[in-house]
Fold these 4 entries.
Entry 1:
Amino acid sequence: MTVRSYIVQLQAGVGQALLPDHRKMLPGIQYVVDADTFSKISLGARQNVINVVAVNTDQVSTSGGYVPAQVSTGVNRQVNASGQGFFNILTQTSASLTSFSIAGFAAQGASAGGATGAGAGIGTPQGTLAGSANNYSLTGPDGARYTLAYNGTGTTISGGWSTVWVDYNNRYIGVAASGAALQVRQDGLGTQYTISVNTTLSGVNGNVTTVGTKAGEFAGITLVNIPAGNFGFIQIEGIHPAAAVASGTAVGTAVGLVSSNTNGTLAAPASTTTVVSGGIVTGSALANNIAGTVLTAPASGTGTGQYFSQVELRSRRVKKPYNRFLNKN
């Protein structure tokens, strides 16, 4: 990982809090938190409870492209049935699912070869739903996680852009402005949830209709350009080396997606005060589509007109899953 530790403190007005390693936080005191512990701090706490004072890194990458850790060693050199390495399959895009063979990878979160059997391409539940990518994921050597998605929009989604789910069930992604508007509600116990919608979207073998799917919620960040009508992997957890962010965003800022965003840029939310009006929630971490924390000062991307930073993406699940392979104890 590029980050060794973080220095954090409570936001103004917060009386106390408990870190994931069970240390009690009090106002005016700074705490050093290792990278693994920080990754467990919820998105809501990053927005409303703590401030990141500093990020202590091993080094800062100036690469404008996607280069995962240990490209030429370890799991990245392990090849699948098609002769591809880990790095190759993550940066590949294709209009056909059969190009994505993961047979040969001992990948957490995915069955070798996908649903159609060993040595075959990643499959879907039904042949008629070949416009969907289904939920297949890979885990990198540094614990970063990636999932296969389908660009069902009419334009290319550039590398380093943040995306939203247009159809979560069938893995359709788009940029915020082109997808369904994110709507968050709150149940009687105060638990927030994303409203389900019905979709009919164009796929490679005809329309794909879904009844009840999440839409508008942060999906992940692209690794390379994904052309319209193509499948490709997006990063959903871990440190992304070159994510588009708003110019001037401070290191340590919790950033999310703006609903009117057309260029996949993450930014600090306009409001962090949770308001429930007419059953609709605004201002919360979920409603603000908070994705993670900025690790490096934004740098201009050559010829893009945008700025890019390393961003630590936190798992969207309330409690980060335990991974025995990465257990620091």
Entry 2:
Amino acid sequence: MKSLPAIAPVSALLWLAPVVLAADPPQDPLWRKAVTIAAANSDWVPGLTITRSEVLFRGKPEGTHEFWQRSKPGPKGEVVTETVKVLEDGKDVTKEEKLETPAKPEKKADKGKGKKSAGDGKSGGGGNPFDPDVQDRVSLKPAHQPKVVEGRDCAGYQFELKNAGGPLFRGTAWLEKQTGVPLEVENMTMDPLPDKRLKSLVMTTRYDTTTNGTWLVKSNVTLTTVSVLLLKANARTTITFSEHWKKAAGTNAMGSSAAPPQ
């Protein structure tokens, strides 16, 4: 299957009422709870990430590429990733792929920043609206209708996240009404798109909480339209995250005593 342009995580939403531009961080109490929860769980890293990319024709898959990666703490606390399985249209091509992409440590710029690296799934390629460091660039407008996500009653917030010199992210965040736990970021778009061959990109990310209250990224689905010369194709990328482990803050992650989430 021909490779698709790199996907970074959202079709512009219709803003039916004035949006309050955030010179200061949003003060909505439920949103502030969500930001606090995200900050408290920023050190959890998915141990297993499975990425399945499909080229769609009339809504049906015509070509698939499946990429399995495991992560673990390195000797200096860095995140080390390794490719463990690659399938191309069902054929196992792991050996060939691993020769090209050996295990590698996390970039220095990502060390100590919790889940802000591209592989963690929470950032959406830099579009994480719950990141405490970007709250002065987030604007909110409450959604008119509630929604049930995974059996939990949620309040919605249409958001804009402006990045200095970078893309503008828009989407709808759904927070559990009682706790403020973020459960979904729906239909997130970015403007401009990261690749000139991309004509549209919409991403939805789901989160979950464990029995001990740990908040983790669960899955992420991105729908794109790609145009190359006179050809146009639709694609769907589904990423699932599991087997999370906790990075040790300021210490050697190999010696961390953090228990796995339950």
Entry 3:
Amino acid sequence: MILGVYWYFKFPNDLYDFKFFKFYPGYGGHADNPAELAARVQVENTDDFIGKLTALKERFKKTYLHLNINENQLIINIGDYQLFDFHFQMAEEIEELLIRERAELLDSSIPFTIQSSKSYAPESEEFKNIEHRFIQMVGSDFRKSNAENYAARIDCNLPLQYKQSLINDLAQIGKEENLNVFYYNDFDCKDHSNLMLFFTNGRQKKESVQKVDINSFGSKVRQLTQKYPLHFGHFGSFKEYPLRGPHVELMVEEEYILNKK
């Protein structure tokens, strides 16, 4: 599983600038469509260009790439429900290839007859269900450059006297499980504490994509219930909801993850 900074609803302003590719946002909800980067171009030698594109794709094993072909015209599409930095980096490298090939940008309003198609699937990974029901996978509001963040959230409560020791152990688990970001909200009431914990990562670039085994992480968190009188979920009513924070324990690229205004 990949956690961290991604784009779906809006383009990453100030980070990328494309000549050929256009960003098509996801809509979410019932539409449930992937966000896409698409380019409609004309090249001199279609077979030669596709061969070079295939070689380029080998360096981006986690991305999906689709081509619609009409003689020497192509529609190049990169799409997913979370566009990480490595998706945009692949588009940048395709643009460099298009420039070297002296490709021509075509008007998307001109009719296009698909004669053939070619798809390049991302590297397959074994699908794993999340075994631990106390883990919620959540998105975020918009941050710097329209970034969103995909994170694991855990709600829990325990006696106040154990809170700091628990936080220290959770930070250590984060480091062990390839998670570079850990922050939390809390509400302390007399001798008890409600906690809302968030674990995630920063921007995912092609040379440093971080895989997280969410079930290994969850197992280590569950083991803490043997060490502390820890319960999942929150106690009390909405008045005790943990809104105080965020308190940062581990952090990278904070401006893309938190909004402290």
Entry 4:
Amino acid sequence: MGNLLGGKMASTKITLPSGATVTIKDPSTLRVKDRNRVIKAGDGLTGDIAKGLAFSEALIATIVEDWSFDLLIPSVKPESLEELEIADYDDLVKASEDISSILFPTLAKNDKNEADPKAVTESSNA
């Protein structure tokens, strides 16, 4: 799968491991309302895993315009994601991670926010 962030682009069609195709929304069409919908997905949930899953699935629902599955797209019926094969779901998560840096630019990995001024090595996890 290619990088979805390379400048102005149209919707992108990706092929998942099962052979199904998914049309991913042009990232330049995302709006503040999309960001807010993703943020609110975890409201009322407890636990980091539940919130992370809700965040990922709301992001996928936001970016999927169309797909070849015989299921409603997740923006219409979020439960459709539960019917996907794990490998297909994981590829959609990867596609959503690329776009999450557009919706949440301050959370995107970059030299400034990855640097740990207290670290004595390049990575404080080393």
